[in-house]
Amino acid sequence: MNQDYIVPNNWSIIEEGFDPDTVRASESLFSIGNGAMGQRANFEEYYSGPTFQGSYIAGVYYPDKTRVGWWKNGYPEYFAKVLNAPNWIGINVFVNDEKLDLFKCKSVEDFRRELNMKEGWYERSFRATLQNDIEVKVVSRRFLSLDLDELGVIRYAVTPLNSDAKVLLRPYLDSGIKNEDTNWEDKFWDTLDVKLQGNQAFIVSKTMKTDFYVSTFMQVEAGECNGYDFESNSFKSSTYASINLERKVKKGEEFSMVKYGGYATSMNHDKYKLISASRNILDQAVTLGYEKLLEKQKQAWAGVWEMADITIDGDVKAQQGIRFNIFQLNQTYLGKDARLNIGPKGFTGEKYGGSTYWDTEAYCIPFYMATKDQKVARNLLTYRYKHLEKAIENAEKLGFTNGAALYPMVTMNGEECHNEWEITFEEIHRNGAIAFAIYNYLRYTGDYSYVREMGMEVMIGIARFWHQRATYSTAKKKYVILGVTGPNEYENNVNNNWYTNYIAKWCINFAIEHIEKLKAEHTEDHDRIREKTALKDTEISKWQEVADNMFFPYSEEHKVYLQQDGFLDKEMVTVADLDKSQRPINQKWSWDRILRSPYIKQADTLQGFYFFEDDFTREELERHFDFYEPFTVHESSLSPCVHSIQAASLDRMDQAYTFYLRTSRLDLDDYNKEVHEGLHITSMAGTWMSIVEGFGGMRIKNGMPSFEPRIPKEWKAYSFKVNFRNQIIKMTVEQGQASFSLEGDKELDILVNGKEMRVSPDNLLTV
Amino acid sequence: MNQDYIVPNNWSIIEEGFDPDTVRASESLFSIGNGAMGQRANFEEYYSGPTFQGSYIAGVYYPDKTRVGWWKNGYPEYFAKVLNAPNWIGINVFVNDEKLDLFKCKSVEDFRRELNMKEGWYERSFRATLQNDIEVKVVSRRFLSLDLDELGVIRYAVTPLNSDAKVLLRPYLDSGIKNEDTNWEDKFWDTLDVKLQGNQAFIVSKTMKTDFYVSTFMQVEAGECNGYDFESNSFKSSTYASINLERKVKKGEEFSMVKYGGYATSMNHDKYKLISASRNILDQAVTLGYEKLLEKQKQAWAGVWEMADITIDGDVKAQQGIRFNIFQLNQTYLGKDARLNIGPKGFTGEKYGGSTYWDTEAYCIPFYMATKDQKVARNLLTYRYKHLEKAIENAEKLGFTNGAALYPMVTMNGEECHNEWEITFEEIHRNGAIAFAIYNYLRYTGDYSYVREMGMEVMIGIARFWHQRATYSTAKKKYVILGVTGPNEYENNVNNNWYTNYIAKWCINFAIEHIEKLKAEHTEDHDRIREKTALKDTEISKWQEVADNMFFPYSEEHKVYLQQDGFLDKEMVTVADLDKSQRPINQKWSWDRILRSPYIKQADTLQGFYFFEDDFTREELERHFDFYEPFTVHESSLSPCVHSIQAASLDRMDQAYTFYLRTSRLDLDDYNKEVHEGLHITSMAGTWMSIVEGFGGMRIKNGMPSFEPRIPKEWKAYSFKVNFRNQIIKMTVEQGQASFSLEGDKELDILVNGKEMRVSPDNLLTV
Fold it and tell me: According to its UniProt record, which protein family does this protein belong to (chains A, B) (predicted)?
């Protein structure tokens, strides 16, 4: 843990007291988003202290030309960078002509931030004494509307406290912004038009290279606006537009304004009509007004929580942590738009670039399936189908043929962006997660239409890749997969990574199973897809040959599958016996030392046991867990959740709870000393899994939800809901008992600790 | 082969005819150097066509801040770049006020370049018709003096051919130069002073960061110089100084000038007295004058050739090729200065940076031992001793302790410069070559003083490294070396590379052998070194334990040592069966595909058989050669020579000759399509080895030179000399017979085809 300044609270994230050293961390933690846009918690008014400015629009990116030390054939031409978008939140404040700047004030008192997760707004308030000795109180509240997702709203109010004062509020738009993350100091935006009209302003800009057109807009309202001459109080330059609202304000009197702002983009509107699209949004906003919009915001978030909330009784920090995770996931992705995905930093920072990693399939889909309508998960799968052609091109760049598809490590539009050979070219297990997500979706929703309409083609492309990537070893008389990086990125270019080989074999079998199922049950789809993909029976036989004869490294001595060939040649010193001064090894050790050590960054063999749990006995899981976990350093934010789930299923609740703690407040307590760069959004879904799949023991078995409830001894009770095929079931677990209730009017059969039970909407089922 | 415009000639490199497309290639091929400085064959006069300007000063470099896509712990902060130095050769020419520019002339006739290797000068001549229809003849000859190695000389002459003309020659100095190879577009040079005085000019500049001070100087002489008012015909700016020499020249009359120029640097002079040092050099030059300097140059080169020449009778292209290689090696390094080394591009380009690779120890030292006084090889070994402290620091950066030394992959001052983890951190076999060179030097020269004074400490640091780098595998019950890149860089992060394990074991045994020898025979040195290095007997025992129990991968089926663990799991398709369209694989394939293929870039296991030939039987060599060569793509310039030597020793002369051809004219015929970037200097030493060790079969056995003469059927005869412990023996081989002669007055015992024979100075021994 690196910080503990966040005030524990069941529903809000709260900071009290002003500390310039935590400004950038809080800018991340208090970020707001609505799935379509996002905003770091930057101050509206000018701030000269250290700050990391960030406004983001979902799907808008810049292809930053690749920078490497030594070029390797096959590297992508660019890295898709998350773009800092034009600023719409700015409101500069002048008090008796002095510019308000918290970094320069004589004193700042009662500084308080609150991110109200229940209602979906962020408020900041403080009293500040300026250099000119005027003390003012400022209250600023803002939110990004879930209903009108191109709109943000700010209410900003200033009250002079110790004397009358001339107060000037200067709301502005600014497209002269920069990215912190840039390879070549390129200019990312080109501003085309700056327009001021009455109390409205618009800046139309477009991204370089990608040509996303964006209108950034604002409309300003103040109590005294009637008859105000905005035109003669406005200013514009080539990348900036502002309106001055100036008043003599009596001591103790509040001068407030409301700023409606946001973005209309060419992703959703005609690129030549963005200003009129912006006006439409503003019209809707102003018609409703601030209070009504806020009311609708509360309702919208209530709807989200109704489905997604997890309650924890008896541990306010755990409660705050899990809600923060659920809140951020919903701020990042609401599943309305199949062009979007879940970036690892969401709308809270620039780092990592791209929007889509295998995190989506491996960690996020279960959360969205269980807490939203199943269309949301379907949209995430559709996203990959839309990228199939690019995945085939990616594979071609690496020498594969005949429609083999390799999904990218990192992407915005389907093209690979990453450029380390050991990751880009070799961390190919990611391809397996894409197919696994189809399996997972099918198992959960029972919706076969995705397979018929899209998924089968994806599965064929992936099976083709694995068939071509495996090679026959005459020495082993088996198919081997050479030169890969597994989920444990602390091993590079290894042979026969067990996880990779296992998922490769699984992908081929999964594809063949569904080709046969389509043939038997959906002949028309089958024939259409076979023709489209030019897939012959002879090719399928060759796949089968590879799957049936895949090599898996195994230790007779330890009775475990080996993470890769030669794993036991390492010096097998456990993490417990490693000097603490050497950790985290990714900061202390050179890369070669990490590579030849036995240390595991995140679940690798155990990731396979997590995905394919039913293929193994409890004893096998226990043996592998006991073999691998002691070498695991958990230096990925995605590591503890899988181990927490497995520890829980092995009835090791203390261990499970310890792993859980490492994930749920990772950002709030800044374990990794990097929260100022943004939040770890995708790993937040892992936290949700730790409770639902770990403590709750939820699985889908034979088309039924199955639970094996457990509870950490530190908690009094916890509860969560899951949406299973449009029936919403709520489980509440207390020490010694679990109860199940159901919404709607249909009954549902579930498994509890392996026993089949029927839950009906009227009765609470208690076990 | 990519080009064949070089005119075959026994002693000169000749180009005839002007082709702008070959200008950059010729700039490399006609480069001149004298071990202390070098100069690409750039035109003296202005040229607006494609050109790669390069003037270089040995030992002067710039530490260019590392640029990577993704940083890894342990990467060096900078890459030492070979620096393009201020231009001293420039002479602009104006004919009736039109600037002479061969790229813009109406016609260029009789264009000819000659690099006279026998005498050490470069001449260029042509007739050109300018836009103003004046036709001029230009003859320019230049050389870098071997005697005064801070001095270069140019004689430049212009003759108007079709009318009288006003000719202006404007010799200049220019420090406003740039590197083509720069990571951040940094400025590499800062100019401090520009001075013009009479017919002399000086520019004092210093390198950024490294603070090398350099005075670039010139003095201009022309027949008409007496009484010429240089001062009022000179011009200077902040980075430039020029002198105008203008004359009305009659049709058919020659207007000529001599320019003396070069560099005085703070490596050899007080940095505040560089201008007076420059004046001293110019005084010596002018006192001798052009003709006398040229005469001395011829004598100096005659001295070099007297010792280093290899004659080939019956194959002018082969003769030209081998002399070109010997000439370039001598232009690059003459062994006078223990601070210098043999950069892979010498003074012919910027690429690769740094000056020292393992090439020096693995390929170059044999050449210098045999063709120079043994002090030269000793200087190369001393260079590494001077870097021992840095090598210990390099190892510490990677987590090694207790004086373990890791010599860098690339360096200027002993610090590692390279920044690919798979090379920098893992291609550690380079450390073995440093120790092997000591062994090789000792075997050849019998000079034990280097071991006593310096080498023993180097050997101890290296043995300590291998001891720490090997780890015990309980699975194999042997010591293993995990995560390395062998000489074959088409495999990365492999386990138990046979070559690396073998040389590691050898290094430890070699160190222990000499610790014991010192103890027995040089107790004082022994005790001093043991104290200085704090080396205890217990530590030595631990080394021995590692060496005695080193693991070597072996195939019982093929009866060969395996290049690394798991080598036989690959798809073993030979190069002959690989589609030609796929080659060279380093241009056609992505890196992962190269890595998982069986293809070998350069000798790896066979490199070990080359170094440690005596440890294996002829049958073992043959088996390994037949196993590995068919998978070798020879995509390193250092590959064919080792294979040529081994093919010769296996009596496969056709194969040996084919390999020889690939090396000896690599640059002249531009096999790799990159000669414009500079020459492959270090691999030229491999060509020399192909003849002396390959065809000549020279080895040192029991302290005696040993020969097994062979001759390619394509040749009538060849001969070479070697300096063995200050006795110079010449071997001449014709079809069916070999003869040996000796200089001096002492007899020498040699082995010929295994039989001991005595050569005496008076008699030719014919076999």
Answer: Belongs to the glycosyl hydrolase 65 family.
